[in-house]
Structure formats: C-alpha cells, structure tokens
C-alpha cells in the first residue's frame, strides 16, 4: 500500500523545484520504511517516474540522511548502470559523489564502514561509462570528482581519468572544460606530493 501512496505523490510533482522535492521528501522522512520503496522506484528504469524518485532520493541523501542509502548500497551500486533517463542519472551521480566525499572525510562516519570494495568498483565502472557516453554537464562534473577521490585507492584511476579528460572532456562544453582542468590540477598535485 505504501508504495502506491508514494507513487501518487511522485506523480503529482510538476517539476524539480526545491519545495516540491522537500514536500515529497517529508513524506519519506516521516515514514522511513518508504525509503526502500523510493530506491525501488528509482530503479524502475523504464518508467519516467524513476526520474522523480531519483530527485527525492538525492534530496534526502544531500539534505537529510546520506546514511539512509547505506542498507541499500548493494541495490544502488549494482543498478546505477541500468539508469536510462538523464533526469535520473544526474541525482544518482551526485549521490555517488556524496559517498566518495564521505568515504574520504577526515572524521569517522558510517559510509567508511559500510561502503565496501565491490560497491566502489561498481561506482567506478559506472562512472567511467558515464564519462565516455553522452551525458549532461552535471553528471560529468560529479563523476569526475567521484573518480578523482576513488583514485586515491586504485592507482590506475587517475591516469585513466586524466587521459579521458585531456582527450575528450576538455573539448566539450565550458562547464566540463573548467571542471576537467580543476580535476587535472588536483591529479597533478597529488602525483607531485607522491602520496
């Protein structure tokens, strides 16, 4: 029954305005058991309602509880590569960036304990797929940062990312060029420090 009510609320969202996202997020925040339904709807990839579900999923992870995604990491990481709609990919790319930022945060947190190697591998693999396929600027920006961070753990990532930025991304829009140059500078700084 709960998934039907959640679906109705998602269908009633007209656009991605903050207040619309917060209104539906509040329903999920009041009934945390709806969160698993929200994840399930996000990955109902052939239905456009997945876009609206992804908006709310990202809103909750960004503004309220990133930890809520942790029990769903297996599903989230294995299914992000199946997303079809730009409107669903962007919020999920942002969640990946949040996970990477939390994983490398100086203060101890639950993401560091629960984000396992298989999750990171899948995020990295999907991230490179997003960078070599046509995607919106925001997806590229979030993904470059995510891959840069996970490159601290896997030494093959930075050279691959650098190559992709220099040969492809830097020749795209102004936005991707700017972020690409920023990431290249960070990679170079990291290589010089030798750490």
Features of the shown structure:
globular, 195 residues, 11 helices, single chain, 71% helix, mainly alpha
Task: Write up what this structure looks like.
With 195 residues, this protein is mainly alpha-helical. The protein is built from eleven helices and no strands. The protein has helices at residues 2-11, 18-30, 34-42, 49-63, 73-79, 86-103, 110-114, 117-132, 137-150, 157-167, 174-193. The protein is globular, with a radius of gyration of 17 Å.
List the SSEs and their pairings.
Elements: H1 2-11, H2 18-30, H3 34-42, H4 49-63, H5 73-79, H6 86-103, H7 110-114, H8 117-132, H9 137-150, H10 157-167, H11 174-193
Order of helices and strands: HHHHHHHHHHH
- Average pLDDT, to the nearest integer? 93
Broad shape: globular
Helix-residue proportion: over 70%
Proportion of beta-strand residues = under 5%
Q: Poorly predicted ranges (pLDDT <50, ≥5 residues)?
A: none
Provide a count of the helices.
11
Kindly state the number of beta strands: 0
Rg, Å, rounded: 17 Å
Span from first to last CA? 52 Å
Question: How is the main sheet built?
Answer: none
Structural class estimated from helices and strands: mainly alpha
Summarize this structure briefly.
The protein is an all-alpha fold. It has eleven helices and no strands.
